[in-house]
Amino acid sequence: MQLILGIESSCDETGVALVRLPADGSLPQLLAHGLHSQIAMHRAYGGVVPELASRDHIRRVLPLTRQVLEDAGAALPDIDVVAFTRGPGLAGALLVGAGAACALGAALGKPVLGIHHLEGHLLSPFLSSDAPQFPFVALLVSGGHTQLMRVDGVGQYAILGETIDDAAGEAFDKSAKLLGLPYPGGPELARLAQDGNPQAFKLPRPLLHSGDLDFSFAGLKTAVLTQAKKLGGDLAAHKADLAASTQAAIVEVLVKKTLKAVQQTGMQRLVVAGGVGANRLLREQLNQTCIQRGIRVHYPELHLCTDNGAMIAMAAAMRLQSGQQQADCSYAFDVKPR
Ligand code: KG4
Ligand code: ZN
Asked: Which residues of this UniProt protein bind substrate (predicted)?
């Protein structure tokens, strides 16, 4: 049995978690996790301010670590491996997590392991009670990435398609900003959309019939801007309709392309991960489509869809368990922002 501490600090959430890696090869278990969101701090600026993010991570990371250990009934010397997010993300923010992880590792004489943020998202559904089994198709939809992947095991990832411009989360966030909604726009737009008519505005479904599995969302944002300008002073009265129409366009493209990927690969399982995976309409439509076709869909638990430390600790545990990677004691903390 090993205890793995995971630290996430790639953007605007400080996440710390402790995962237990059983010696018998069974799935790692989450013992405790803590999260501090910086949303309130960045909201005044309409988006993440990198310098403020780094400073706040520094303030939060050690108290959160202490809290997580206490919640798990563990102490610092019990930690066997310290994992951290190596990238992608904001350079300064990543350096805080990497620095803290390496300092802890060096002080405790324990090895450290850098984890790819997206692998954390990808493997986060293994933390849920309804954990998937390999192989599966994965739809990874976050603020920075939109990818369809074939996943045959830990570290065995083949990209089937991805966005050629904006990510799905970016499309949500930028459209929300155009509608005057506060940061972070995705969940705000989704909330407003509940009161709107998704058919009120005709918005483009970019690359829907492109024949491949790539996405493009940049044109959608421009179409939303054009509609908003056209409405002028009437925008306020039609805001919910425009939000609902935007959400419907993004979700339709995601669902149709995902289904195509599942059909092309002949897979019976689908995993949806990343912040946009929390979107209710996306979940409803994917569930409906997949039930009809006998495809099993797995999601992370709702509170683990967006950034957190549990997914980093879990990805580290699964990598170590699979023999894909080893933690080391070089403490040369490099990060990979891109
Ligand atoms: O995975 P994540 O926390 O961070 C990145 O790695 O990017 O994803 C954040 C993204 C943001 O774009 C946010 O607006 C979006 O996920 N998001 C949502 C919802 N919750 C979060 N988008 C649509 N509907 C939601 N309910
Ligand atoms: Zn993320």
From this structure: 140-144, 173, 186, 279
